[in-house]
Structures are given as C-alpha cells and as structure tokens.
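Problem 12. The chain below contains 281 residues. Write out its predicted structure in token notation.
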Amino acid sequence: MKDLAIAIVNTNNRKLLKDCLSSIVVNTKQISYDIAVTDNASTDGSQAMVRGDFPQVMLIENQENLGFIKASNQGLRRLRARYFMLLNDDTIVKPAALDKLVEFMDRHPGVGACGPKLLNVDGSLQHQGGLLGKRFWLAKEPVKVDFVIGAALVVRQEVIDRVGVMDENLFFYNDDLDWCLSIRKAGWDIYFVPDAEIVHYGGYSSKRTFKRRLFVEGFKGGLYFCRKHYGELAFNIYRLILCLCLSLILPLRLFNREKFKAYLEIIGLAWRGQIPKPMLK
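Solution.
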C-alpha cells in the first residue's frame, strides 16, 4: 500500500495543474504516492496535458462540473493508501513537504488530519483563518488546531473509514470546516505542521471573475454547515439574520446584475429554509 494518495480537482487550470504535478514529482523523494486528477469538464486541454506529461497519474474525466467536493471524493474513492491528501491545483509543493507531513502523521497516531504552512507566491505567510482569532499559521512548531484549509489537507485512512469522505451536500466552500469538525467530533486531533511548506496561489481558480453559482453555493454551504453541526434553532436564527443583512445590502448591488441576482437567490434560499437536512452517522 502506498504512503499517500493525493486527490486533485482541476477546472481549466492547465498551466497551474502542470506546475503542481511537476512540483510533487520533483520534490517528493522519501514516500510512495499515487495521484488522481479529477477534471471537471475542462476545455483548455488539461486532460491531454495530464495524459501526455504525467501518464502515471490517474485521470478521471467528468462531462460536467460536479464541484470541488464531489470531484474530490471521486479521487479519494478510487485511491488507496495509508494517508489521503486534498491538494488544490493552484499549489506548488516545496522540497520534502509531503515527506514531512507523512512523517509527522507516522509519529503521532492520535492525529487524524494535518496541514502544512501555506505561502503566498512572494514567499510571505498565507493566513488560514483561525477560529476566534487564533493565528495558528504563525506557529514555529506543530500546533493543535480546530481546522486546516482544504487547499492542502492530509487525512489518515482510519479517519475516512470512520467519518467518511467529504459531505456532498456541499458544492465548493465550507468543505474543510465541515470535514475537520467531523474529524474532531470523532475524537481525532488536527495539527498545523509549519515545517512542511506549500505555495498556494490563494483562490486563483475561483477569484478571476465573479461567479454567481460559487457565490451562492458559499452561502448555501454556510447555512447547511450551521444546520448540520449546531441544530435547528441556530440554523433558523442564522438564516433570518442572513436575510436581514443581505436585504440591507441589496440596493447597493443594483448596478451589478449578476451580484444582484445572486443576493436575491441567497435571500430566497435563506427565507424559505431550502437547505437539505443532514444525514448524520
């Protein structure tokens, strides 16, 4: 069995994906690994690039964009290893980063998941959004955290056997928060490992232009996350507050048709409570 199974999702990011895959091959020497790239109906030649330049990579070709979570799960389900890793296509793995993450997990059997230090392209530290103001990304030594972001997240096989893959009621955002909270509820620790470094372009694939569907799915995922982990009362309070806040902002979006429609859609979803009820294990 391989040490690490790496699941990467790509949508029209051929150049970034090529750089990402090259960095894994060049900078990972101590561990064995498999890679699965799930392509969400790219039209930029990404699939041909993977087949031609990285024949050892498992390529899963979707005929439509299934979103990050479903596409990631496709890769996770097809691979088998002692550890699994979610890795964004807009990342560059620095020397020995994956080796160090696997070594850390081997030395700490009580840790269910971990993540590396993320760097911006200029080498500066990338903020990872610690809960309650915890700036864990500044730590010099491994530190226990509430969550690490899904741009680079390593999970133990036994954890997936216990809590399952990511929740497919989510489409793109909130997946890392949801998965990490489920992992912690199952009794596992999560750690930030600063000795392992990965460059992250920081949402390049999703921030180039405003995308109405992703924007709406972000809020929809937040509502679902609240309902799943904090119950019906918190969910109902949150959706009403969201309706009020977005309604106050709505007039400011009149001059941007797509954003105006997105806000209206989110307000409608929240007001009607049209969010799936989670199927908890």
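Discussion. The mean pLDDT is 90. Students who got a different answer should revisit the alignment rule from Section 12.3.
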